[in-house]
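Batch manifest, entry 17 of 40.
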Amino acid sequence: MIDKINACINKHMTEWLEELAGLVRQRSVSGTGEGVVDCAELFVKVMRKVGIDANVRSLSREYPPFPFVVGEAKCNNLNAPTILVYGHYDVKPEGDVSLWKSEPFEPEIRDGRMYGRGVSDNKCQIFMYIKAIQICRELYGELPCNVKFIFEGSEEIGSPGLSEFLMENRELLKADFCLNSDGAMHESCRPTVKLGTKGMYAPILEVICANRDVHSMHGPTVPNAAWRMVEVLSSLRDFSTGRILIDGFYDDVQVPTEEEIATLQSMPDDGAVTLRELDLDHFAMGPKGNDYNYNFVFENSCNINSLVSGHIGPGDNNIVPHKARCRLDFRLVPNQIPLDIHEKLQAHLHKHGFDDVKIISAETAVKPVRLSITNPYVQILIPALRDAYNQEPIVYPSGGGSGPLKMFTDSVGVDTVILPMCAADQCEHSPNENMKLMDFENGIRAASIMMIRLGEKLKVNEQ
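Output type: structure tokens
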């Protein structure tokens, strides 16, 4: 089977790289709206070319501004399992073009990689599944399982409207399992499985003391907004242990199971490498110490994203700043709910006498999700990846970042696994974003084998 898949990939590789280059060449910057609708329509053409029933869909109301690409490829067996492939076709802006070695939206192949904005994040990683459909049909004449697709055009701006779209189309998108190939594999280039994501609550705090900045000669008498914000932030976290001091913050935390701890222990210890790469001599402390892997996977956090007050620039301004703002992000673990954390933060501010501190924005709210490694579909995917890459997969009980995967559970009733297919040095969101040609081949092979193995599971069940 693998030899046949490899032969099919080799046969079409030049053609598929040209097709992928066309998708990368099509701008689709959701932050500005440039080319997003055109890119959605181009993906529909690419999908229809291999027999996927695809179309562009929007919400019943005009929000968000960018459409969803929805598609379906059916198996002849009505009892076949159905997988849902989720990804995004929008990209980040190119940034400073002078930092690119080639034009961001004119893909170029050099040194075994294709370079271009969006090539790895996320266009090639959803394109791989489209080509797996083509391989299965060429080799077997039909699909071994049903495959549905949903690609969004607003992921890079926070997926506005995704939850609502999933609810409106839950019957259309109904599936047994969901796959999301996005992000990067482990630094070792071994195949990687992430069984969940952390949640996030990201408020902006603001404190205003006077009605304007004043000369710093008034420092002994006029309240300083920057010092007030420092006082607020100091109340949120124990600096010696890393424990978050908001009352009730840990009440609903789901403790890692023995199974999850065992999975964690099978992961490579990346602590020493991370210390060296970041030129650090220690890690931040968590409530259970400074175990890198444990804290990365299982611990929540209260992070200061930005802190702004007063004047920083040429010359001395010598002021008492009247206003300060801070953006936080709380990374949450299963059973923690962003709205509940918002209410507990409000209660904390009131309890400690910070009623002058306002939460002026708390729009970013993502729920955490974590899937068991014993899930029957996960148990099919892991050996399929092992065969595709000829390496043992690295399984994360959860990734350190956040994403919209809980929306699929809540809205469509389907569990999701993250299977990143691109290298850790892909430079997503940065100049010279790239995709290894080897990763492209491996990803198409992996997607094909996963579909075939799901069909084999069906046959075993029928016997």
